[in-house]
Amino acid sequence: MKYKDIRELTTKELNELVSEEKDKYTRMRISHSVNPLDNPMKLKQTKRTIAKLKTELRKRELNKQ
Fold it and tell me: Mind spelling out the 3-state secondary structure of 2-60?
């Protein structure tokens, strides 16, 4: 997900996406430990997406103050 797309989302949508991505990451990590994923780089990409979303949320929080 690109920063441009993330900036266009509302705060509520960002919070929902963070929780969805965290769930997705947890499921992927567990399934990877049992049966290796075809592309283990997806773990890294999901982790980075979570970080991007949280960064935008934090930026908005600081701008409010």
Answer: CHHHHHHCCHHHHHHHHHHHHHHHHHHHHHHHHCCCCCCHHHHHHHHHHHHHHHHHHHH
Report yes or no on whether pTM surpasses 0.85. Answer: yes
**Tally of domains within the chain:** 1
pLDDT band at 1; cut points 50, 70, 90: confident
With beta carbons less than 8 A apart as the criterion, state whether 17 and 52 touch: no
Instruction: Please indicate, yes or no, if residue 24 is contained in any of the structural domains.
Output: yes
- Give the tens place of pLDDT for each residue, 21-63: 999 999 999 999 999 989 999 999 999 999 999 999 999 999 9
Q: Tell me whether residue 57 is in a domain.
A: yes
Which domain does 59 fall in, by range? 11-64
